[in-house]
Structures are given as structure tokens and as C-alpha cells.
Amino acid sequence: MDASVVFSLIGVSIPMVAIVGGIGSSVFKRWASLKEKQMEIAARTAGEQAAQYAAKIERLEAHVAVLNRIVTDRNDGLTAQIESLRDGRIN
User: pTM of the prediction?
Assistant: First the structure.
């Protein structure tokens, strides 16, 4: 190949590489931004679920405490306590 042909190819190749690199960089930035937003949404959702689970656990612990108190206390009035719990009145 002649030297002028080589220099012509290099002269055309450099701008093409720059253009393709610029487009690729833009596409990568948009992809990275999308992934970041997806991770933020996933983290927010996980936080909300954790709060819901914590509230549910707290309610269950309260129920277990009531049941534990009924079982360990003397059995005087056990029927009345069970009925009051069924009616939603906790003593």
C-alpha cells in the first residue's frame, strides 16, 4: 500500500472512532442512569416491606404476650379473659 493511502485511512479512522466512542459513551451513561434508578426503587420497596414486617412482628409479639399472660397467670376467670379477648377488649 502506498503511504498516502495509509494516511488517508488513518485520517478517516480517527474521526470515526471518536464518533462511535461518543455515541457509545452516551448510551452507557443512559444505561447506568437507568440501573441506578432501578436500584433506588428496589431499595425503597425493600424498606417499605421491612417496615411492614416490623409492624406485623410487633402485633404478633403483643398477641404472644397476652397469650403468655393468660397461660402463666392463675386460672381464675380464664373463661372471662378469653371471652374479653374474643370481643377485642384486652385487660
Answer: 0.48
Instruction: Select from 7, 6, 25 the least CA-distant residue to 17.
Output: 25
Rg value, the chain, Cα: 35
* Euclidean distance between CA atoms 45 and 57, whole angstroms: 18
Question: Cell numbers at residue 38, please?
Answer: 432501578
pLDDT digit string, tens, across residues 1-21: 687 888 788 888 888 888 888
Q: Confirm if 66 and 90 have CB atoms less than 8 A apart.
A: yes
Give the separation between CA 45 and CA 35, rounded to whole angstroms: 15
**Grid cell for residue 20:** 462511535
Set of cell numbers at residue 25: 459513551
